[in-house]
Amino acid sequence: MSRVVHWLQHHETRVFHFVNQRIQHFFLDHFFNKITHLGGATASIAISLCFALFGQGPLRTAGIQALLALTISHIPVAIIKKKYPRLRPYLVHPQTITYKNPLTDHSFPSGHTTAIFSIIFPFVTAVPVLGLILIPLALIVGLSRIYLGLHYPSDCIVGCLIGTTASLVTVAFWG
């Protein structure tokens, strides 16, 4: 078991370094610094709340479901962050490229990735064609977390799974 865990950690670190250091570009620096905030509390709550309050029909329902999924999804995130206090990559790997105001709480799982995935699926369920935009957007937010040196790939994968599960369960029970 130890060999498998070591192998996984080694390859995850390689993927992290590739995304964080090898694909660096001026445009990507600015793009990822902006897009990453879509998974932050301010944007995810504001977007969901606006649709819940001002949306009509299925989009209003999607806004309410997104708020509920967002709330539900962050319960396991808070528990896991306390139970498995993983240091952020830039604190472990000195060569990590970071940007303004790096976070200091625990890395696992990614709250931004959880948030964006928890809010998109109610909208995709309400208007399926939105999936063509929202799913790639959520994946880009997750990638931005690695690019910015704040998360390992597994942090984002688990955040995606938690957010998606909370979202799909909310939609299933709401509808």
TrEMBL record:
Checking Gene3D superfamilies in the record gives: Phosphatidic acid phosphatase type 2/haloperoxidase
From the Swiss-Prot or TrEMBL record, state where the protein is found: Cell membrane
Where's the Phosphatidic acid phosphatase type 2/haloperoxidase domain? 61-171
Q: Which residues cross the membrane?
A: 35-55, 62-80, 115-144, 156-174
Metal-binding listed as a keyword: no
Membrane-protein topology: Multi-pass membrane protein
Q: Which UniProt keywords apply?
A: Cell membrane, Hydrolase, Membrane, Transmembrane, Transmembrane helix
**Is Translocase one of the keywords UniProt gives this record?**
no
Read off the SMART domains from this record: acidPPc (SM00014)
User: Would you tell me the protein name for this molecule?
Assistant: Phosphatase PAP2 family protein
Give the originating organism. Paenibacillus phytorum
